[in-house]
Amino acid sequence: GRHLVDPRDLQLTELDALFSLAEQIQKNQSHYRDLCRGQILATLFFEPSTRTRLSFEAAMLRLGGSCLGFAEPSSSSVAKGESLADTIRTVAAYADLIVMRNPKEGAALLASRYSSVPVVNAGDGGHHHPTQTLTDLLTIRQLRGTTEGLTIGFCGDLRFGRTVHSLAETLARYKNNKMVFISPPELRIPDYIKTGALAKNQIEYRETDRLEAVMGDLDVLYMTRVQRERFFNEEDYVRLKDFYILDNEKLKTAKKDLIILHPLPRVNEIAIEVDADPRAVYFAQAKYGMYVRMALIASLLGVASC
Ligand code: CP
């Protein structure tokens, strides 16, 4: 079957087809309300989630399908020591599509090898989160009109932030994008992204720890949370957690048509006062996530040509 484990599993033409379908669905939802009738989506979440799990479930329900799963691994037989491989083989017999989040890098790839139905990676540790990238790109396409020729600033925890890894690799495949990576030295973007997708696509990029110094250059600012759950010790987290706090003062030098994205959840890195700025689009972004997941489900189940 077809899986979405890594953003590279989708060609650019397939990505753009998914965005077109998501836009059609958003415009004319009632037309799609029975598309997945009789089909079942399983959501297996071994880590907490609000948006990813609930937007996948809302997406399936709005397509007329049904959902089952667990949001708390302690309620599954994993708590009794069952392996991921056995869990996946079991659930694949009950559901038509599996969406899984797991704290281990590579868990989604392993699951895809044992599953007879499509597996979607809803986040594997600090590695990748491809459906967040679909969400982010649809937001950029809708609100900037293009996913090419942009200067994108990624700010915060670029080391452990899986949404950054997936989005930077994918934006690198579109034409003429430039990137600025803004982080404390300890939380820089991993080398495999720089020597991989960025080098391969000859992306012009800079690394800095000063958000204010680059603010005026940015078309898109992608803020991220410091990923407490991936730190080895609490002391380092406490030292780094408030390194960046975006507020109205820092936005004074920003472009008028900047858009501010954040995969959410936000902890403290964007001041609440910024929510009222029309450039703050992170709640719209969360809504686009549901439409693009509707398009993805339809595509993976083979009920929409995409
Ligand atoms: N953006 C995102 O993955 O949010 P959740 O952790 O709430 O699913």
TrEMBL record:
Q: Which SUPFAM superfamilies match?
A: Aspartate/ornithine carbamoyltransferase
Q: Where does carbamoyl phosphate bind?
A: 51-52, 101, 129, 132, 264-265
Q: Which UniProt keywords apply?
A: Pyrimidine biosynthesis, Transferase
The record lists L-aspartate as bound by: 80, 162, 225
User: MF terms per GO, please?
Assistant: amino acid binding; aspartate carbamoyltransferase activity
Q: Which reaction does it catalyse?
A: carbamoyl phosphate + L-aspartate = N-carbamoyl-L-aspartate + phosphate + H(+)
Concerning InterPro entries, the annotation shows:
Asp/Orn_carbamoyltranf_P-bd, Asp/Orn_carbamoylTrfase, Asp/Orn_carbamoylTrfase_sf, Asp_carbamoyltransf, Asp_carbamoyltransf_Asp/Orn-bd
* Pathway where it operates: Pyrimidine metabolism; UMP biosynthesis via de novo pathway; (S)-dihydroorotate from bicarbonate: step 2/3
The EC number on file is: 2.1.3.2
Instruction: Give the first-level EC class, as a single word.
Output: transferase
Pfam families reported for this sequence: OTCace, OTCace_N
- Annotated Aspartate/ornithine carbamoyltransferase carbamoyl-P binding domain residues: 2-142
GO annotation, biological process: 'de novo' pyrimidine nucleobase biosynthetic process; 'de novo' UMP biosynthetic process; amino acid metabolic process
Q: Which residues form the Aspartate/ornithine carbamoyltransferase Asp/Orn-binding domain?
A: 148-299
Say what the protein does: Catalyzes the condensation of carbamoyl phosphate and aspartate to form carbamoyl aspartate and inorganic phosphate, the committed step in the de novo pyrimidine nucleotide biosynthesis pathway.
Describe its partners and assembly state. Answer: Heterododecamer (2C3:3R2) of six catalytic PyrB chains organized as two trimers (C3), and six regulatory PyrI chains organized as three dimers (R2).
* Family affiliation: Belongs to the aspartate/ornithine carbamoyltransferase superfamily. ATCase family.
The record's listing under HAMAP family reads: Asp_carb_tr
Record's protein name: Aspartate carbamoyltransferase
The organism is: Gracilinema caldarium (strain ATCC 51460 / DSM 7334 / H1) (Treponema caldarium)
